[in-house]
Amino acid sequence: MIAPVGDPVTYVWSSDCADGTFTPPDAATTQFSKPTAGACAVTVTATSNGFSVVQSFVIAVFPAGATSGALLISTAFVSPPTIQISLSDLFCSQSSNSIGFNASYVQQVLGVIPEGTDAVLGLSDEVSPGVISTTADSQFTYVVMPMRL
């Protein structure tokens, strides 16, 4: 997990196997052990600055001394959520009138704006960066790059 410079990242490893253990259970990397054979669902949660990323997978533990076995692991890439803004035809004279932003980047910006403060998203077109500012602090400016939809 990439966190802003200086922000600590905490990790929590868990499993649905009662006899499975992690050493250590709260580090970026860990070792998993289980005295009995079987499949276990493993989950790791990384948290920084109030945002969490969760990844789960299944592992298979074979009996001690097993010389053969099979394990099928499959995964799917999940794109980060996006925020899509549709612009009214009154404000957009071009044929395309949608712009998308990575939601986690926008959430990071909104997370540092004090509660009750208005945020303003400035847009010029669907391919140019958006500029987020606040009405309360003229020094606060955050640039968010659009995503291809």
Can you offer a commentary on this structure?
The radius of gyration is 22 Å and the shape is elongated. It has one helix at residues 103-112, and strands spanning 10-15, 21-23, 31-33, 38-48, 51-61, 82-86, 98-102, 119-122, 130-134, 141-144. It has 1 helix and 10 strands. The protein folds into 2 domains: 1-78, no CATH class; 82-144, no CATH class. The two termini are 24 Å apart. The longest helix has 10 residues, at 103-112. With 149 residues, the protein is mainly β.
Task: Summarize the SSE layout with pairings.
Blueprint: E1 10-15, E2 21-23, E3 31-33, E4 38-48, E5 51-61, E6 82-86, E7 98-102, H1 103-112, E8 119-122, E9 130-134, E10 141-144
Antiparallel strand pairs: 1-4, 2-3, 4-5, 6-7, 8-9, 9-10
Largest sheet: spatial strand order: 1-4-5
- Shape verdict: elongated
Low-confidence stretches: 71-75, 79-84, 86-95
Strand content: 35-45%
Total number of helical segments? 1
SSE succession: EEEEEEEHEEE
Q: How many structural units, i.e. domains?
A: 2
Q: Into which percent range does the helicity of residues fall?
A: under 10%
Radius of gyration: 22 Å
Oligomer kind? single chain
What is the makeup of the main sheet? Answer: 3 strands, antiparallel
Secondary structure tally: strands: 10
Give the termini distance in whole angstroms: 24 Å
- The residue-averaged pLDDT reads 74
Helical/strand content category: mainly beta
